[in-house]
Every structure is written in C-alpha cells, then in structure tokens.
Amino acid sequence: MTTALEKEVTAPAATEDKAGRRGSHALRWWVLAVLGVAQLMVVLDATVVNIALPHAQADLGFSNGDRQWVITGYALAFGSLLLLGGRLSDLFGRRTTFITGLIGFAVASAIGGAAGNFEVLVGSRVAQGVFAALLAPAALSLLTVTFTEPAERAKAFGIFGAIAGAGGALGLLLGGALTEWASWRWVMYVNLVFAAIALVGAILLLAKHTATTRPKLDLPGTLTVTAALFGIVYGFSHAESDGWTNGVTLAFLLGGAALLGVFVWLEQRVAHPLLPLRVVLDRTRGASYVAVFTIGIGMFAMFLFLTYYMQQQLGYSPIRTGVAFLPMVAGMVAASTTVPALLIPRVGPKVTVVTGFLLATLGMALLTRIGVDTGYASHILPSLLLMGLGLGMAMSTAFSGATAGVEHADAGVASAMVNTSQQVGGSIGTALLSTLAATSFNDYVAGHVPPSPRVLAEAAVQSYTTTFWWAAAIFVVGAVVTGLIMPNKVPVPAEGEPVLAH
Prior knowledge:
By secondary structure, this protein is mainly alpha-helical. α5 (118-146) packs across α17 (411-446). The protein is built from 18 helices and two strands. Helices cover 77% and strands 1% of the residues. The protein has a two-stranded antiparallel sheet with strand order 1-2. The longest helix has 36 residues, at 411-446.
C-alpha cells in the first residue's frame, strides 16, 4: 500500500489504488524530514530550557520555589492533553492539526523569548505544552500513514525514533551553546527557525485529509483522562519537591489513578471513544507502549543526574556537558537507523527490544562505577555508547510497533499514546529517582560526621549511583514485561490515509 501524502505536481510518479490512496517514493522521505524537524523541536524543548533556567531566573528575578513551574507548566499541559491532541488529528485531519500545532508553538515561543516577567514566561511554556500536544501525535501519525511498506517503515521509524531519543541530549548542547554565546531568550527564539522550516515543508508536501464522516468527540472521556493525566503528572512533580507522604501529592496521585479507572470504564460504553481500547489491547502495541514508558523513566533520569555529575563534580561547562552526551546520540542514531531494518525481519521485534533493554541495563550498571575523581573516557563514555545503542534499538522498534496495524482513523490517538507513555514515564522517573537520590545523599552524610566538602562530594556521587542502579533495575523490568507481552512477529504496517484528489 502506498502513502497518502504528496502534492499533485508529482502525479507522473504517483500511483493510485482503489481506496484512493496515492504516493510518491521520492516525496515520502521529504515528508519524513519535515516531521523530523517538528519532532526535534518538541523533544528539544523538554531539556533545552533547563540549562538556561538559572540565567532566566537572574534576569527576571523569580524565586527558586517558582523556578520549577517553567518546567512543570510545559510538562503538565503537554502530558495531560496528548490524547485529546491525538484524537483531534484523527477527527479534523493530521495536516490541519500539524500546521496548527506548529504555528501555535512558534507564537508561544516568541512570547516566551520576549517575556518581561515570570508570569508571561510560565504562560508561554504552558501554551507551548498545549500546542506540542497537538503537534507531536500529528507528526507520528502522519509518519504512520505515510510509510506503509514494511522495509521503508522500519527505516523511517528508526530515523524518527533516533530523533525522539537523541533530542534530549541535543537539547542540553543547544541550550548550553545558546545560553553561553547569546542569551537565555534564544532557547525560546530558536524554535521559530525549526517551526518555519517545518511549516513551509508541511504546506508544500502534506496532502489534505478527506473524511466522509466525522464522529463526535468523546467529551466525558476527554475531560476524565485530561484530569487524570494532569493529576498523575502534577502528583509526581509535587512528590519531587514535597515528598511522597505529602497530602497534596497523595491526593493528586490517587485522584489521577481513580480517574484513569473511570476513563477505562467510560471508553467501553461510549459510541465514539477518545481512546478505543482496541488500540492498547493489541499485544504488539501494548508492549510497545510499556517499552516507551520504561525508557522514559530511565532516560530522563539519566540525563538529569549525569548532567549534575558532570557539571558539579567534574566541573564541566553547559556546552562541554552537551558535547559529552554526543557519543550517546551517535549510538542512538546508528542503532535506530540500522537495527530495525536489519534485525526485526530476522529475529523479530521482541528479541530486538529485549536485547536493546539489556544493552541499556549494562550501560547503566557500568555508570555506577563513577567516583569523585573518575574520568570521562574510562567511566562515562563506555556507558553512554552502550545506552545509545541499546535505547536506540528498543525505542525505534517500539515506535514502529506502537502504531502497527492501526486503522488510519485511530492513527492519531495511537501515536498520542506513545508520547503520553514517554511523558508520564519521564515524570515518574524524575520524581521517583530524585527522591531516592535525596534519601541516599542524606543517609551518606548522616553516617559521615562532620560533613566535610569531600564527604558532601562523595554523598552526591553516592546519590547518583543509587539512581543508576534503580534505573538499571527498571530497564530489566521493562525487558521482562516486554518479552512476556510482545509477540515475536514483524509488525503489520498501518493503513494509508485517504486524501483529496487535486
């Protein structure tokens, strides 16, 4: 089956099947480039602001207590609205939703870059999260309905998975460079460049979606799951700062979990569910969501604590820290762009994902060898290479499996589940492992009185290695669960999308 996305000017090279779906082999890869630029912009924003935050705080004069809202505001809006964004792309057309998300994200970024006070900065970050929730599922679902040939699909999802995985590390590098060489405001303004490139490509390359029927939006399900995801993401963010036994933390976490139960109950009873349960109950897709969720827990935390170690213990500048992560990026790109096409047809997706998790586990375990005076080449580089290869294998395969065999009418919400799994996993990982790190730090200091500067440095390293051991254990659990659930057969491609004939 051929793709749904191209312009009529390529009609001589196009083919058209009985379902009215047509495609051009040449333009599919240009579409991938456009979607990759947009995905990179969204993923970068999860980390690019972190490094610039101290400079923004000094410039705008907000407190340490308020600082977290610049990060949390984006995460809350993004994480809680993803499923709605995915379903809107199914209902109103992926091209329309994608372009709307691009324009909105660019405008929000411009406002954030020009912010004269804390309130405007946080408001712009929330708006970025809202439009990212439209943009991210639309990009992945466009990829899903574009690449429907198995061999091309593996390669395309490998490239897209590499962007999704490596974007966080690249964000650290870009954030450091822009902050040191220009201004913290440029970590917001740089999005205008990404958005402009992607917008021109989207207008030129993406064909308009056609639909004979437009189901009603599942309003009760939308409200319920948005509130549930908000509660869960906020609960974990609150736990990071105020502890797991805090009343507000418990109220949001328990309330979010209860609302998720209500949502599942509702989705079995409405005519047009926001998230048809057939999307998640398929074993290939369900296992892929588990894999992405697990990767989100370990990878977000690894970026956080390894960044702390390199800057606070090794004395690296922001730019040098970003450069230090590049071998991991190279490993992810290498694995993501070659392994799915080479391994999945031969050994199957289950073996590929489990092997990827085990490589990442080994890399994370090796990272526990770090000390106050250890070197980068001997103690960090081997781990980053192993994690890059392992996570690249697992993530690209999971991205492909997460939308395998899905009907084009469900491609948006299936794609949104990928982003939701990653976002919620990142929130849980950051909160859970931050708590474990803090406990480990305090226990070490309490056992070494008086706390000299050397003891404090050792306590910090002890806290990091504790989180790396836990992250390694989480990767093992991900390997076991994915291995038990996922069938070891090549994922069936999604169907193409009907588009308007010109």
